[in-house]
Design goal:
Elements (H helix, E strand, L loop, with lengths): L2 H4 L17 E2 L10 E3 L12 H6 L4 E4 L8 E3 L3 H12 L8 E6 L4 H14 L4 E4 L4 E3 L2 E3 L8 H13 L4 E5 L2 H5 L8 E6 L7 H4 L2 H13 L1 E7 L5 H7 L4 E6 L7 E8 L4 E6 L4 E6 L4 H16 L4 H8 L10 E4 L4 E5 L4 H11 L7 E5 L10 H11 L2 E4 L9 H8 L1 H5 L4 E3 L3 H11 L5 E5 L6 E4 L2 E4 L2 H15 L1
Parallel strand pairs: 1-2, 2-3, 3-4, 5-9, 5-10, 6-9, 10-11, 11-12, 12-13, 17-21, 18-19, 18-21, 19-20
Antiparallel strand pairs: 6-7, 7-8, 13-14, 14-15, 16-17, 22-23
Helix pairs in contact: 3-5, 4-10, 10-11, 12-13, 16-17
């Protein structure tokens, strides 16, 4: 592609020579002959230090934020923003050719994304998805490395979605991706705010920074669907009062849409969705109050996009479950559930939803991540201590932090409240131990990994699939009974 086309809408200083390129990158490891290298500063590496070497390796142009004294350079104000625009141009601006839906918040992004995709597909639409569990081009599954891909990979994927006939794209949008300007230049037809609780403070440092990072999505969104029950909702409403705001609630009548007559079961939630014009009955096949929020948020995206309330709410009763989100792995003779909950709020939501329906002992297996926001550990332990009859403490991506020290730092919460527990650093052993403890009628929930099939130990990623562990255990259990 001609470099002038690549740089469309990018403001720069310097003399630009005319040439064609077949690759652009901000990764120094991917520089090759004929490419364009964009130098940006990260947490541990400044690409400007590599600019001269990039030219030596054959790059035809380097894009920098300050003068490097190089002949083949142009200077931009923000190289991250420039790189995102360049990647979009390079792939023909695919986001402008489809309806874009972005979801942000601490919890519920993955479930909401899959629900929206499901609802749109029930209306006969082809949909692309980008998220934590996986990326999808219609029904084709593509592994996901990040919740929100880097700009080159993101636009390459969007381009494939468009070429495959996708009309809509549903994206989980992470706060890190927003701060790093990976999505700069994309306008969203609808954005969803699920909630905001403590998470990622190792990166953002303060809740205010975390909130402001999330708000970057709304800056470039035409419509915003907002969970009115979250304490941060009013700040969003005040900040974006000029946009089309659609609020929903499971408690408050002043929201645009409110859930009424909520009835919880172990496997579903039933309620009436009330708006100013309509009342629709919903039988949603996922349990818990948080499922009410996820269901309404997903429905309102589709309604905002022009689909009828009647058809959308009817479709909610037919949605499929989401891997690793309150996923029942075993129903009899005991119950085993897998869930991604890994924050205090996430654990509070899932455990409080299940507790009323657990007739016998409720065993909770969980761990706290290493080298991440350590302040999350107390609310996680407190949430578990409120609902568990027995606790299995184990590892959850300790990374290079000592996993035993993480466990030692939280076990006191259970000792103080006389809640019985065991501690096993090896998560595979911990799961098998928990499974072997189960008696008929009891319930075990495996928290933290959800869809993930790995564990990060001492900086090394090792394979660990809880679905597979449970399946193998049940095979032996069946033979022994």
């Amino acid at each position: 592609m001609n470099i002038k086309s690549v740089l469309k809408d990018v403001e720069y200083q310097g003399v630009l020579k005319d040439f064609d390129t077949d690759f652009i990158t901000d990764d120094s490891r991917k520089v090759r002959t004929g490419c364009v290298f964009v130098a940006s500063k990260g947490n541990s590496f400044d690409g400007h230090m590599f600019a001269t070497r990039a030219i030596e390796l054959g790059a035809k142009l380097v894009v920098v934020q300050h003068d490097m004294g190089l002949e083949n350079q142009i200077i931009v104000k923000d190289s991250r923003k420039a790189y995102s625009l360049m990647c979009s141009n390079f792939f023909g601006n695919p986001a402008k050719k489809m309806k874009m839906i972005g979801i942000t918040g601490t919890n519920g992004k993955t479930t909401s994304a899959f629900l929206i995709k499901d609802l749109l597909e029930q209306h006969g639409k082809k949909v692309g998805l980008m998220g934590t569990v996986q990326n999808m081009i219609d029904q084709q599954i593509i592994p996901a490395k990040f919740t929100t891909p880097q700009p080159y990979e993101l636009n390459a994927l969007l381009s494939q979605m468009y070429k495959s006939g996708c009309e809509y794209v549903v994206m989980e949008v992470s706060s890190q991706a927003l701060v790093q300007q990976r999505l700069y230049g994309i306008t969203y037809d609808v954005a969803v705010f699920t909630n905001l609780t403590q998470d990622h403070l190792d990166y953002h440092k303060t809740m205010e920074n975390y909130f402001n990072a999330k708000c970057l999505l709304f800056e470039n969104s035409r419509n915003i669907v907002i969970n009115y029950d979250d304490s941060y909702s009013k700040k969003i409403i005040e900040r974006y009062s000029e946009k089309n705001l659609i609020t929903f609630s499971a408690k408050k009548d002043e929201a645009d849409y409110t859930a009424k007559n909520i009835e919880f079961t172990q496997n579903s939630v039933k309620f009436m969705l009330v708006s100013k014009e309509n009342i629709n009955r919903i039988n949603f096949p996922m349990p818990g109050e948080y499922s009410v929020h996820n269901a309404i948020g997903a429905a309102l995206v589709c309604i905002t996009l022009g689909f009828s309330e009647k058809s959308v709410t009817k479709a909610l009763s037919n949605v499929k479950g989401v891997r690793g989100r309150c996923e029942i792995l075993v129903k009899e003779p005991f119950t085993v559930i897998c869930d991604f909950a890994h924050t205090g709020d996430g654990l509070e939501n899932i455990l409080s939803s299940l507790r009323p329906f657990v007739k016998n002992r409720f065993i909770v297996l969980f761990g706290c991540a290493g080298e991440r926001d350590a302040a999350k550990r107390k609310p996680m332990a407190e949430a578990v201590s409120k609902y568990a009859d027995f606790v299995v403490l184990t590892s959850d991506n300790p990374r290079k932090e000592d996993p035993q020290s993480i466990i030692d730092g939280i076990k006191g919460y259970f000792e103080d409240k006389n809640i019985p527990y065991i501690a096993e650093v090896d998560r595979r052993k911990a799961i098998n131990t928990a499974l072997s403890m189960l008696k008929p009628g009891e319930t075990l929930i495996l928290c933290g990994k959800g869809h993930e099939d790995y564990q990060v130990l001492n900086g090394v990623t090792v394979y660990l699939d809880e679905h597979e562990i449970v399946e193998k255990f049940m095979e032996k259990y069946s033979r022994g009974n």
